[in-house]
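Section 5.1 Outputs to date
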Amino acid sequence: MLLKHLYWKGFYGIDNDILTNVLRYFGGFYKKFWKVDESKHRGITHPFEPQLVDAKSIAVEKEVKGFGKVIHLEYEDFPYSQAYDLLKIVDENTILGKAFMGQFGKGRELFNFSMSRIYDVDFMTEEDLLTLFNSNDLSHPSTESEMKGTWEGMLVSDSAVTPRAQIFYFEYEDGLFDMRYSFANMLQGRSDVSITDRLFRFDDPTPFHDELRMVTPNLVVGRWVTEWSSEDVLKPYLDDFRRILPIEVSHDAESFFQKLSQMLPIRGVKLPKELGVSFLGVERNENDETRIGLSYILKKISNLTATS
C-alpha cells in the first residue's frame, strides 16, 4: 500500500463502458485542500494530463437534500465554474464524490468518483514509481537469483496500472543468465543483462533499454527509457525518419523530409517535462538532461520459467 500525504488521488469506477475506461486511464486527477477559516477551505483540482491545469475551488460544508451533510466544491474560474462536486467524507483517508454540470442544486450528474490518500500499488502514479525507484531505502538492485522466474508487467500511468502488457522470463543456472520477453503476445525476443550497484539493466536492439529495481521479492519497478540527452532526445528517431523518407517532392526540389523539417521546428529539441502523457513520460535529471520512456511494474507469478 502507498500512503500519500501531499494530496488526495482520484479514482473512477470499474465499469467497462467507453467513458469510464477513457477517464480511468487518461482522466486521472488529484485534489489538494488547505484551511481558510473554521467553515471554509480552498483547494485545487489538478488533472495529471494536461499538467498545466489547476482548477481552483472553494470547499464549504452544506446540508443538501437527498445527500445529507456534504462538502460543496465550487470551482472559481471559467470553464470549471460551470461544474461543481459534492464530496462525502468516509474516513480520514477516503472520500466519495459526485461531479455535476450546471448550477448548484440543479446540475446534471456527470459521474461518480472516489478519492484516497492510501492506495494499492496497482494505482501508483509515475511519481510514486520514481520515488520507489530512486530510493535506496525503498528498493534495491536485484540479483540474478532474485529475478529468476516468470514476471508479468503492467504499464503505469498517473491514473491507473494497465492490465498485463508483457511477460518476462528470467532463467539463472550454473552462473548463466537468460532473459526473454513477450510484449502483448506480439513482440518476442531476448535481451542482454547487466547488473550494477544501482540497478538491474537489460538491452535489446532499440534506442531504449530497461532499468529495474526490486521493492519486494514479488514486486519490481521498471523504466523502459532512452539514454540521457543534453541536446536532442528526438535525434535518433529523426535520423531514422530521414533514412526511410528520402522521397523527393519533385525532381528539382528537396526531399519530403527536408520540406517537413523546414515547416516544423523539430531540430535541437529538448523535451519539456510537461509534454509527458499517460504511459509516456519525460524525465529530467540534476544535470538538466532529459530522456523519454515508459514506467511499469513487474509482479512475480511463478518461480519457474517456460521452456524455450
